[in-house]
């Protein structure tokens, strides 16, 4: 039920929100966006959405059922979508052929500005546009819809859109070069030649993209960083930016599930886990696999579970890397694919350690959920984890220098040795209540509308 405070200046009718969100990504950012959408729906906001370009391509390829199910659940009105220019005049394509064409060259068409917007609802006028992502395509779309629909617009930053420290950018670029080189499926030399060329091209457009991002952020009515760490990483902060400290927590459903899983008294297994988006080079899967090679020398019966959705081609390349370069038996590394939350919690609760060599984060659901399940974590000392978890070993988290695989291995061995001695202590962190976080979020939206 909406209240006057929920609808600043709109007490006589429900607030109309146009939400921009990537519903198909199985990431922490999408999970957090869906939490907000669920809350907006429950307090009576009328939601609409405009399907962004890449989500449209993925939906054409995979089917629209996932997007449609979310739209139905929250009564979201689809007002339009962004799509590639029609290529039907080139050849008579079957539906399968069109799906292939969109998936193969869809991103190229977008980069060449060969896209168009299709409006399904005429004269739709939202009270406010809310985007949940900081990617350049989302910032462009938010600005274009703000201009076209003459509505105020805000964007949530769930990761830094750029980094103020060149060393941070350099570390992320190195991690991505390593990831692409060893998981490319080709020779090391040919992979590196391609990647060096890619990095040169990326460098040539980097400053231009950053200037565009800064201009787009300034054009919006409010920019909401979802954690203090994002503002710290950006250094140069636009005047319209506010940050939350943090804007993340576990909702009541997740907390109930944590209690349920802990009550099962799942015994610790002889395994460690990697949690994240394995195909995202910034999340450090290759570094985790290299670290695991050295953990096996000290703990030969250990296994590694890699949790997260991967394509068949990517999984094949990862196992090839295990065999060719690391000389690890494939049976030692189990790729689970995507797990629902209960399956994930049970697997994490039984693990001795979470390997989390991520280079990017604003808060980290992975770390929070692991510590709530009393499973220790070894991670890199990046601002988000240092600010919100502090690297206090007695609380269950070990932080090491970013990219230092040797120290990452050393800290992991230290934790596993503590398990041998039965001397592991993990203290769940204190977290904000979900209602408190959402009241703050609604107040920020209302501030723009006043």
Describe this structure in words.
This protein has 16 helices and 14 strands. By secondary structure, it is of the alpha/beta class. It has two domains: 189 residues, Rossmann fold (3-Layer(aba) Sandwich), CATH 3.40.50; 169 residues, Glycogen Phosphorylase B (Rossmann fold), CATH 3.40.50. The strands form two sheets. It has an eight-stranded mixed sheet, sandwiched between helices. Strands 11-10-9-12-13-14 form a six-stranded parallel sheet, sandwiched between helices. Helix 2 runs antiparallel to helix 4, helix 6 crosses helix 7 and helix 9 packs across helix 12. The protein is globular, with a radius of gyration of 23 Å.
What key attributes describe this structure?
450 residues; alpha/beta; Rossmann fold; eight-stranded mixed beta sheet; six-stranded parallel beta sheet; globular; disordered N terminus
Indicate the percent of residues in helices. 40-55%
Largest sheet: 8 strands, mixed
Strand content: 5-15%
**Subunit organisation of the chains:** single chain
Short description:
This protein is of the alpha/beta class and 450 residues long. The protein has helices spanning 28-42, 53-62, 65-73, 95-111, 136-149, 166-182, 188-219, 228-234, 252-263, 285-298, 312-326, 341-349, 365-372, 383-388, 405-420, 434-449; strands at 16-20, 46-51, 77-84, 115-119, 128-131, 153-157, 222-225, 241-243, 271-275, 303-307, 333-337, 353-356, 377-380, 397-400.
């Amino acid at each position: 039920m909406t209240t006057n405070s929920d609808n600043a200046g709109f007490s006589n009718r429900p607030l109309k929100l146009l939400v921009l969100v990537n519903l198909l990504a199985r990431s922490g950012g999408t999970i957090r966006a869906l939490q907000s959408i669920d809350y907006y729906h429950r307090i009576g906001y009328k939601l609409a959405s405009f399907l962004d370009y890449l989500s449209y391509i993925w939906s054409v390829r995979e089917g629209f059922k996932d997007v449609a199910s979310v739209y139905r659940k929250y009564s979201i009105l689809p007002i339009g979508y962004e799509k590639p220019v029609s290529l039907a005049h080139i050849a008579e394509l079957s539906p399968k052929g069109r799906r292939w064409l969109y998936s193969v060259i869809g991103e190229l068409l977008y980069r060449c500005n060969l896209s168009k917007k299709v409006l399904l609802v005429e004269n739709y006028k939202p009270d406010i546009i809310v985007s949940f992502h900081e990617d350049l395509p989302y910032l462009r779309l938010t600005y274009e819809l703000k201009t076209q629909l003459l509505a105020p617009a805000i964007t949530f930053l769930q990761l830094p859109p750029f980094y103020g420290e060149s060393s941070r950018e350099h570390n992320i670029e190195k991690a991505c070069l390593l990831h692409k080189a060893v998981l490319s499926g080709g020779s090391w030399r040919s992979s590196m030649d391609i990647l060096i060329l890619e990095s040169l091209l990326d460098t040539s457009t980097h400053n231009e993209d950053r200037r565009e991002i800064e201009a787009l952020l300034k054009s919006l009515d409010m920019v909401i960083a979802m954690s203090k760490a994002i503002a710290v990483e950006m250094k140069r902060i636009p005047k319209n930016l506010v940050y939350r400290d943090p804007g993340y927590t576990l909702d009541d459903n997740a907390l109930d599930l944590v209690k349920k899983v802990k009550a099962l008294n799942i015994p610790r297994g002889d395994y460690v886990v990697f949690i994240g988006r394995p195909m995202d080079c910034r999340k450090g899967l290759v570094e985790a696999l290299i670290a695991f090679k050295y953990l096996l020398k000290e703990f030969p019966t250990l296994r590694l579970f890699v949790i997260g959705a991967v394509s068949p081609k990517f999984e094949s390349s990862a196992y090839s890397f295990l065999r060719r370069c690391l000389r690890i038996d494939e049976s030692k590394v189990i790729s689970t694919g995507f797990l629902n939350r209960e399956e994930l919690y049970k697997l994490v609760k039984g693990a001795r350690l979470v390997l989390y060599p991520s280079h990017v984060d604003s808060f980290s659901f992975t770390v929070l959920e692991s510590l709530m399940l009393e499973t220790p974590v070894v991670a890199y000392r990046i601002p988000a984890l240092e600010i919100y978890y502090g690297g206090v070993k007695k609380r269950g988290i070990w932080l090491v220098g970013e990219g230092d695989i040797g120290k990452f291995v050393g800290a992991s061995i230290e934790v596993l040795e503590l398990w041998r001695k039965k001397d592991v202590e993990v203290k769940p962190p204190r977290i904000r209540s979900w209602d408190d976080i959402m009241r703050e979020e609604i107040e920020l939206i209302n501030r723009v509308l006043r």
